[in-house]
Amino acid sequence: MKILVTGGAGFLGSHLCEKLLLTGHEVVALDNLVTGSKANIDHLFSNSKFEFIRHDVTFPIYLEIEGIFNLACPASPKKYQSDPVQTLKTSVHGAINLLGLAKRTKAKILQASTSEIYGDPNVSPQNESYWGNVNPIGIRSCYDEGKRAAETLFSDYHRQYNLDIRIARIFNTYGPKMAEDDGRVVSNFIVQALSNQPITIYGDGNQTRSFCYVDDLISGLVKLFDQPGINTPVNLGNPVAINMKDLANEIIKYTKSESKLVFKDLPQDDPVDRLPDITKARKILNWEPFVDREAGLNKTIEYFKNILSA
Ligand code: NAD
Ligand code: UDP
Ligand code: UDP
Question: Using a 6 Å CB cutoff, which residues line ligand 3?
Answer without folding.
Answer: 76-77, 172, 184-185, 188, 200-202, 207, 209, 244, 267, 270
